[in-house]
Amino acid sequence: MPDLSDIMYWLRVLYLVCQASILIPVVAGLIWRRRLPRNLRSLVYCCLMWLVLMSFGEYASWAWGNNNGVYQLVDILEPWFIGAAYYHTLRRPWRRYFPLIGMVFTALALFDYFVLSGLWQAITQTLIFSDKYATLLRYILMIGLLLLYFEQCLSELHPRSLWQDAMFVVSVGFLLFYTSTLMLFLTKHLILGPERRLVFAGLGVVNLGLHVLLARAFWLGRHPPPAVVGAGLPL
After folding, report:
1. Transmembrane ranges (predicted)?
2. Where are the alpha helices (DSSP H) in the chain?
């Protein structure tokens, strides 16, 4: 029987390898960036943000034993990049409210982090930090955005397979990612001890899937899709 410490070590390695796979869409996005439409370019910048900040978060955890504040910054920036991608994808008049929604979310998240949840104390005193409401609000916004996109897909007649549409591929990846992490967020108090490492390794595999789908989307986005029959028609 393998030793428990060996299992934990290899689960950690699996998690780090899956996290490092963000390099796949980053390289693909940078290679084809000039040929991508605006929505996909926003996702390239999002991948770059993930790479820089999450790498720094891993370093901060190793060097100082404290990466509080880093992942919270990721959680604030992420909806802006992804929201920008869907702002240039959705064809609904109320998309003009996206910047306002983003500002409200940012203000509420900062209020939660620093007033309700004590992020500053967690940073200065190297405490375990967990926000109260900001993460759940982010999941609601992101999943809601994806559902709006899928509703738009259903309302239009597509001349080709949706799996050849870059934003559809991306949206499937995001939906798998956000639903998986939402389940982890809602049940994290039930997961204790070594099982946490197993769960995070599984989440790493979900990240790997998302990164592969992002890279495929950038590959598909090199050439503009044919015009969509019925696009832009009001419901």
Report:
1. 12-31, 43-64, 97-116, 136-154, 166-186, 198-219
2. 4-20, 23-32, 38-64, 70-87, 98-111, 119-125, 134-154, 166-187, 195-220
Over residues 192-223, the pLDDT tens digits come to 666 667 777 788 899 999 999 999 999 999 87
Q: Helices marked H in 88-118 — which ranges?
A: 98-111
pLDDT in tens, 61-85: 888 888 999 999 999 999 999 999 9
What does each C-alpha distance from 176 to 54, 82, 103 come to in angstroms?
20, 15, 26
Structure tokens at 126: 């190297």
Residue type, 2: P
Cα-Cα-Cα-Cα dihedral sign, residues 214, 219, 223, 226 = negative
Cβ proximity of 60 and 67 under 8 Å: yes
Tell me how far the alpha carbon of residue 30 is from its chain's centroid: 18
d(CA 182, CA 172): 15
Cα(222)–Cα(36) distance, rounded to whole angstroms? Answer: 5
Are the C-beta atoms of residues 199 and 14 closer than 8 Å to each other?
no
Which of 130, 50, 149, 137 has its CA nearest to residue 90?
Answer: 149
Nearest Cα to Cα of residue 114 among 106, 138, 182, 80: 106
CB atoms within 10 A of CB 14: 18
The secondary structure of residue 225, as a DSSP letter, is P
**Beta carbons of 137 and 108 less than 8 angstroms apart:** yes
Q: What is the DSSP letter of 224?
A: P
Kindly state the DSSP code that residue 229 receives in the 8-state scheme.
Answer: B
